[in-house]
Amino acid sequence: MFASLTGIGLASAAGLNAYVPLLVVGLLARYTDFLPLSPTWMWLEHPVTLIILGVLLVVEFVADKVPAVDTINDVLQTFIRPTSGGITFGAGASTFTLTEITGEASGISAVAGGVIWGAVIAGATIALFFHLAKAIARPVINVLTFGLGAPVVSFLEDVASFFVALLAVLLPLLIVIVFPLMLILGVWAIRKGGRVRAEKRAQKQDQRAASRTTQGPGQEPRHRPGMLLADPQRWGPEKRRG
């Protein structure tokens, strides 16, 4: 059960920041005994892996703080964050059987090539949900705050990702409380983002309709090429002869 909670917490953290939980897993596995990894996942604690993850984390940290760039980053992260969620859940689940996740009657093979694929799929799905909530809410926050909220919200997401990943390993029982709260917040962010976008679309449609009304077909323009020459009242016979 604790291993399942660890995997859920790590995958949730990966949905907010792909590299934070990977680094947490790698560093704790290398320098402590809190998270012993199976041979399949020991590459996560290799020094080269940790250095690469550290560099990628710095790039992600900077890119996610800049309005507009953060939206592009979220598009790119659509594949990376679920992958991170699958890896971290798989690494956390490497010490228990798949029946903890899928149940006895699932009929799914627990391990293939040393990888618990049910755990990997579950982790990728969880991370994808939180990634979508983040990606949908961020442009709305940028618009409402004129871009000023992007670095603040991004920093809070990074902090949340770190603490959730740490809790998932050190105090996995707390994930029973944290995960439902994150789910509720994620659903709210998705619904709020959809509502704001719908309102903005409606405003644009109203503006277009108002623009068509003010420039209707029965309204003459103020200036029209050749209008003076075609106006018989301004150009009488005398002026035309002169």
In short:
The protein has helices at 2-16, 19-31, 47-63, 69-92, 99-102, 117-144, 149-170, 175-214, 237-241. It has 242 residues and is mainly α. The chain has one domain.
Jot down its keywords:
0% strand, mainly alpha, 242 residues
Protein model, in words:
The chain is mostly helical. The protein has one domain. Helix content is about 70%, strand content about 0%. The chain is built from nine helices and no strands. The protein has helices at about 1-15, 20-30, 45-65, 70-90, 100, 115-145, 150-170, 175-215, 235-240.
Radius of gyration: 28 Å
**Mean model confidence by pLDDT:** 81
Q: Give the strand content.
A: under 5%
Q: What is the SS-derived class?
A: mainly alpha
Number of helices: 9
How many beta strands in the DSSP annotation?
0
Protein name: Putative membrane protein
Pfam families: DUF4126
Region (Disordered): 200-242
Domain DUF4126: 5-192
Write the layout of secondary structure elements.
Layout: H1 2-16, H2 19-31, H3 47-63, H4 69-92, H5 99-102, H6 117-144, H7 149-170, H8 175-214, H9 237-241
Helix pairs in contact: 1-2, 1-4, 1-6, 1-7, 1-8, 2-3, 2-4, 2-7, 4-6, 6-8
